[in-house]
Amino acid sequence: MVNVGIVGGTGYTGVELLRLLAQHPQARVAAITSRKDAGTRVADMFASLRGHFDGLAFVAPGPEALRGCDVVFFATPHGVAMAQARELLAAGTRIVDLAADFRLRDPAEFERWYKVPHACVDLLEEAVYGLPEVNREAIRKARIVGNPGCYPTAVQLGFLPLLEAGLVDTDHLIADCKSGVSGAGRKAELNLILPEAADNFAAYGLRGHRHLPEIVQGLNRASAGPVRLAFTPHLTPMIRGIFATLYAPLKDPGADLQALYEKRYAGEPFVDVMPPGSAPDTRSVRAANVCRIAVHRPPGTDLAMVLAVEDNLVKGAAGQAVQNMNLMFGLPETTGLGAPPVLP
Amino acid sequence: MVNVGIVGGTGYTGVELLRLLAQHPQARVAAITSRKDAGTRVADMFASLRGHFDGLAFVAPGPEALRGCDVVFFATPHGVAMAQARELLAAGTRIVDLAADFRLRDPAEFERWYKVPHACVDLLEEAVYGLPEVNREAIRKARIVGNPGCYPTAVQLGFLPLLEAGLVDTDHLIADCKSGVSGAGRKAELNLILPEAADNFAAYGLRGHRHLPEIVQGLNRASAGPVRLAFTPHLTPMIRGIFATLYAPLKDPGADLQALYEKRYAGEPFVDVMPPGSAPDTRSVRAANVCRIAVHRPPGTDLAMVLAVEDNLVKGAAGQAVQNMNLMFGLPETTGLGAPPVLP
Amino acid sequence: MVNVGIVGGTGYTGVELLRLLAQHPQARVAAITSRKDAGTRVADMFASLRGHFDGLAFVAPGPEALRGCDVVFFATPHGVAMAQARELLAAGTRIVDLAADFRLRDPAEFERWYKVPHACVDLLEEAVYGLPEVNREAIRKARIVGNPGCYPTAVQLGFLPLLEAGLVDTDHLIADCKSGVSGAGRKAELNLILPEAADNFAAYGLRGHRHLPEIVQGLNRASAGPVRLAFTPHLTPMIRGIFATLYAPLKDPGADLQALYEKRYAGEPFVDVMPPGSAPDTRSVRAANVCRIAVHRPPGTDLAMVLAVEDNLVKGAAGQAVQNMNLMFGLPETTGLGAPPVLP
Amino acid sequence: MVNVGIVGGTGYTGVELLRLLAQHPQARVAAITSRKDAGTRVADMFASLRGHFDGLAFVAPGPEALRGCDVVFFATPHGVAMAQARELLAAGTRIVDLAADFRLRDPAEFERWYKVPHACVDLLEEAVYGLPEVNREAIRKARIVGNPGCYPTAVQLGFLPLLEAGLVDTDHLIADCKSGVSGAGRKAELNLILPEAADNFAAYGLRGHRHLPEIVQGLNRASAGPVRLAFTPHLTPMIRGIFATLYAPLKDPGADLQALYEKRYAGEPFVDVMPPGSAPDTRSVRAANVCRIAVHRPPGTDLAMVLAVEDNLVKGAAGQAVQNMNLMFGLPETTGLGAPPVLP
After folding, report:
1. What is the pLDDT of residues B159-193, one digit of tens each?
2. Which of residues 208-237 of A touch B (CB under 8 A)?
3. Based on the structure, what is the number of domains in chain D?
4. What residues does A4 pair with on adjacent strands?
5. CB contact under 8 A, C193 and A193
6. ipTM higher than the 0.90 cut
7. Range of the structural domain that residue C15 is part of
8. Do D187 and B193 touch (CB under 8 A)?
């Protein structure tokens, strides 16, 4: 039984961790912290959890709170995990950070995008980027896992086979991405309220979204050279889900892309390469830890087009975090993650 | 292991049964029928089920199709279960009908509302109404269970404690109910398409909805006398969920309603009486087999007001059907039904 | 040409006033104030208004700002209009308050619900409640109009004919109301963000909503005696619209309710009594200044049931305010309000 | 006063024509036809139109029905307009077809995509493509106008300045488009019902959407040479709106795109080039006849990215049709089209 701590459990990734861990037979939530809501029972904040975690209440953060945890998930804004990591590691606790502190390898790049210096560059060096489809073995042994962002998971899984095989012109990659509103977090912001966000479709982050360097880092690694990527995030009026429409000019128009993708992801428990001609939709992955991918050749062009869908809170956040935990603790990778998507 | 057959698995209650049974450790889906889609793999129709039920395909209906099933769920329009019930029972198969064939005790009432005579009045007499909170012991032994409708589940669970205790004037009951659109079924109807149903709120069924006699039958039983009920269904622009706002004039304004409800539902695994002052919402039960109830006294009135929420496809349909199956086969009642609601 | 000032134009009632006044041939917006956004052009805050009001920018509030206006609309929280009313009137400017300062006749009642003493009791006495279907002649001459709340408009218009005719038991009135989220205002609040409010249905304000005393005041007047009302507001996942389902026990079950309603509202330009058996929906009034009403007799009961729909931002707020302005300035009542609803 | 006939007025473009013409001071709807609903009053089918068009009922199609009309709008599936065009022209009636019969210049291309031969190739030759920003003068004199499709309007207006100026590599154009569900028409189809389409995002038409040849025809003309275009339509869970995200590799990265767009569309009443850095959203054009465009340079790339939004039923259909009618009859182009968008 893995003893789990959660730091910052009042956001959407936190409550999603609770939902998933409630069904996990080999993990139990030993502690959950929240500065603002210490003393509140988890089930009093989230009525959906009544009858689950009945004894669990938020406690104030601090070293005592997480003592004895085998692993701590940080479901916090950036900056929190790097401030607490050293102490936790010293106590023998391993870390999965769902924020950005351990995603970018380059501390200068981190500082450029997050406007604070990195607090523990040595640990950053040790940390493993938690995309199991790329780093599975390293994750098993990692003390710190930087859990990927929601957009980066979908975009990387979608592009990787093309880049690893060197089939496309990496100077002209496009990731046209659409996200449900929960991707923005559980925050009281005007542009997120239903009368603003419903029956509406909008682009945002056009001057550079923080997920851009993370994506580029992963694509550079896969292509073994620098890529140029246009990454356009859009907000679509739904609760959960990311839809990534990816375009890349093919060097060899005759390549068998379907076979390439099927081979690359053969045996992957949480990546589903759909049959030729498929049009994935986000509801086919709602609430489940899976990324579905379809590969297309737009008629009349020399492009490859890849459609990748995921639930931003599951394979794009909390589900992938649990998947990483399973790897880190020698559990079968799919433990606790077997529930089918919720449709309709 | 319970061998399960599903008749008519292409509607929302059918696919929801599949979703729930995929997680059920003591049941396996042995056969699923569909006249129109025989030969299609289940996972080809519902991409959400890819990786689950991989060997399962729809087969044409008929006695062969369901041979060897311990229980058959009818996720069909009314009229199908009563046509096949006798043969299945003869083969030793038990039945849970998610449609209306075995809900109304009075065959004349059935004929009045469904415009066809009942096909097997003797079996109707034997059938048990599948509301475990009322009929638990009878369900355990039943060969045929008439699984309650979605509105009737919420309205009955909401009213029962008041009626059983004789606390209200049963001549002036009101059930003002709001349903998500999936309650209308997986049907290509103009009023259900998104541009008609979204950003819209409408009443319907004002001349008499088919769930009215089912509700009245249950309330009459609980109050041991005839009730008069105004039942107003409304369509609200969401996928899943029923919200029932119930009003009844109190005979004794001093009654402790909170205690009454807590006592009535103590120990019930799937009815959650919320703390005093609570305002339940449908998302707190989304995708889970639970009915949450809050009891109120509107200021300045002599009314009791009860708010009851459920997921129309789970506690209002497929989840309750699995709960009934668990009872019928001596399994713990909560088997396979433990996943928390999906929030957000 | 009526010179219009708007105080507090950055909320939903403010921007809706701008939308409606853009189409009004006899009014022009001379000034619009906002403390926070002074200096910002209106069309820079609301892209929908680009090309309209091109010269108009928010100015800081203050007596100078509104000098020369024939009428000032207060699209503010409560408390603002009563603080500025005296000065405006002294300058010959008339007032339409879309907040609550001039709705409740009784200053003690105002203080009880709004937690501040009323700032100008004499003006409150003079003010006219701006429901044209009740107070048309008084509105024409009024210097101050208290524009009704959104729920109160729908509930009063729905109940009035029954109460004025003395046909119902006024001790057991029920108003089960459903509102789109814009009714809560343009506010960054957590429960209003799309992932909380979409695919969800919730009750709120169960301890007493501020619109309750306003509704009761109007119903008391209509029935010439005190009524008892249960008023239950619910939040439904749509942008605009109010749906009121009203119940009242009939004293005389033989009354011709359809004729009663048609007669009461004959000639009313903005109340539409629908044919017998109709089920109104909110989209049939979206963005238009109309309240549609259908009257029903739920089968098996002695109740009258009235269904009333309106757009909370139009007939429930800004549209009714313009209707009142038209009356106050001797314009045809429908001026600028003729555009049909937006459907779909 | 222009006497207007509408053929096929029961779909979304038909009812939108009615909504817009209700506000048009120089046009009156003289006749509206529907095979299926002949005899039904327009306001009985669309409650939103109660109080407008009170004398207007659907009549059976046929030459008599439209006698005396100055112009007839075809709001029908393809194939209807070309069957009736000759007779109407002979009677002196002009035609605006909102379907596809008069959009594609090449009858072979029409037959290839619509699977029927074109019925009147000579009239096709005479017809004018109704994009006023390109063909204004020809439209004024046209007897037949082929009103552009919804996607083609947004994509062409978005790309035109770049192509006309020869600034981009026309071999690698991408139009990643997102449409609200009303774009699919008022049809009872399973994939359009709310439980399928809400809280979901999907691609469709991946083997070639019928709007592709229309778009390519327009882009070829603008670039004076053949373009290669990937056009990916997606369905987003909203009622109205199209959002087009367009990508094109710049030949000259130093070009001043903002100035280019502002100059190209200077004086255009219904194309709004937004300020640099803007992120348009579809609600800023909801229910109004405007296309808003923002031009961007994605960081780190050599691409131009253009964001274009419109209401698919207005500038993408009925509004543009009225704009064309205004031109054809010598009215000011903006007549009847001045209402601001509906926000929220």
Report:
1. 999 999 999 999 999 999 999 999 999 999 999 99
2. none
3. 2
4. A29, A71
5. yes
6. yes
7. 2-126
8. yes
